[in-house]
Amino acid sequence: MLHKITPFRYVYAIAVIFTLINAIFFIGAGVAKSIKGYKGFFKSDFMITEDHHPGMYLLEALDAFMISLVFMIFGLGIARLFIFDKTEGMRLPKWLNITSLEELKVLLWRTILFALVSFAVTNFLKDNAVTWDDLILPLIILILVASLFLVHKRT
Prior knowledge:
Blueprint: H1 2-5, H2 9-43, H3 54-83, H4 101-126, H5 136-154
Helix pairs in contact: 2-3, 3-4, 4-5
């Protein structure tokens, strides 16, 4: 049965390549937002007013970098599991030496949680008027943290 699945490795390679391209795109977006934030700081002589918030660009850059990290971990994890499963992981960082889909799931879960927290902080700092709808994202984060805790408690 396994010999019938082996040709599909190339389909995984396409998914990995495009996922890593997405990661590079978000790194570029993060760099662009960072440069825009730095320019804003230097143009205003480090003055922050109601209309001028250069630090928000840096927070948005952090969001872009976190999304890029999620894409990288997903792409490299899929490549490690399905394409390079027979190679030694000596050249990989220890945290990326994934041997099962369960390990990849937990690593992605933690990374996505960190990215969501960063995104939630940015959203709360952007909005002046906080509504009940703004509590949806923190509630989602709480549910994800609780479920991650329960998964770890089970093992």
